[in-house]
Design goal:
This protein is α+β, with helices and mostly antiparallel strands and 299 residues long. The chain contains eight helices and 15 strands. The protein is globular.
Length: 299
């Protein structure tokens, strides 16, 4: 297939199906109540990045929601690798974003999940849309957004009900920003809608702690691992928006973005800004540690 014409693949319960026939019952609890969990990674040279770690986190999210994955972590990981290979062949070798979703399945109609005993698994395999080199060089704007998310009630599980994050991102885009940083009930920064957030003060790397009901991102953890080799000491502490006003640099992390500099928060520029020497040093260390060759995302 012409890569330009390929729009992605969907697999349901381990089998790729036509996009037009990719259906789940309207009685599935994932559709009715958002009673589902998900996780996302990407490929490098066709290989899903840290896939087993992502599936393990998916299993933890499901456990926090009170159900189990329909396959073991090892079997689900192997299934995803097989389906990625199939999709890569159909795409002409494109790099992919890989979103894994597991719903609780169908059960008696109503809020009580008792009786829903057959979880369904869905895999979305889409052409990768990574940030442009200009976004790395210039940084991106973020805003702060106070809300309470369904994941907060589920101890940081990555749940399918993303309505509050959808509204936060819409609000960010209306204000010309790339991402929204979520504030908890007392005004502390937790994380972005799909990212973790860091600030740099000299040689100190600061990020909110996992006690803040954040989702401990895979990329976040890897950045913390390489911080010392990049010349930083790590401090995990509660942060408020005003903390970013005195930061030398700031950035967000995710599997798709890797490390992406923040140029402003709520319209106020981050102190030093471009060319982001600290973020670049950490990003280089992150990519080297994980064997990520090829062109730099910075261009």
């Amino acid at each position: 297939m012409n890569a330009a014409a390929w729009q992605g693949s969907v697999a349901i319960d381990g089998r790729i199906v036509d996009r037009e026939h990719a259906t789940i019952s309207v009685y599935d609890r994932g559709f009715i109540f958002g009673d589902s969990v998900f996780d996302t990674t990407r490929t490098y040279d066709g290989v899903p990045f840290r896939l087993e770690a992502h599936v393990e986190r998916l299993a933890r999210s499901a456990a926090k929601m009170g159900f189990e994955l329909p396959l073991s972590v090892a079997d689900f990981t192997a299934e995803i690798r097989r389906l990625v290979d199939e999709a890569r062949g159909a795409s002409g070798g494109l790099e992919l974003s890989v979103r894994q979703m597991v719903t609780r399945g169908q059960g008696p109609f109503g809020l009580d999940p008792e009786g829903a005993t057959e979880p369904r698994r869905v895999l979305f395999l889409q052409p990768l849309k990574a940030p442009s080199p200009a976004m790395y060089r210039d940084g991106v704007g973020v805003i702060t957004y106070a809300t309470f998310r369904p994941s907060d009630a589920a101890q940081g599980a990555k749940v399918g009900n993303y309505l509050e994050s959808v509204l936060a991102v819409r609000h960010a885009h209306e204000r010309g920003a790339h991402e929204a940083l979520i504030l908890c009930h007392d005004g502390h920064v937790i994380e972005g809608t799909t990212t973790n957030v860091f600030a740099i003060y000299g040689t100190r790397l600061v990020t909110p702690p996992t006690t803040e009901t954040i989702l401990p991102g895979i990329t976040r953890g890897l950045v913390l691992e390489v911080a010392a080799s990049a010349g930083f000491t790590v401090e995990e502490r509660r942060m408020v928006p005003a903390d970013f006003a005195t930061a030398d640099e700031a950035f967000i992390t995710s599997s798709i973005r890797e490390l992406l500099p923040i140029s402003s928060i709520d319209g106020k520029p981050i102190a030093k800004g471009s060319p982001w020497p600290g973020v670049r040093r950490l990003h280089e260390a992150f990519r080297a540690k994980n064997g990520l060759g090829g062109p730099s995302p910075w261009g």
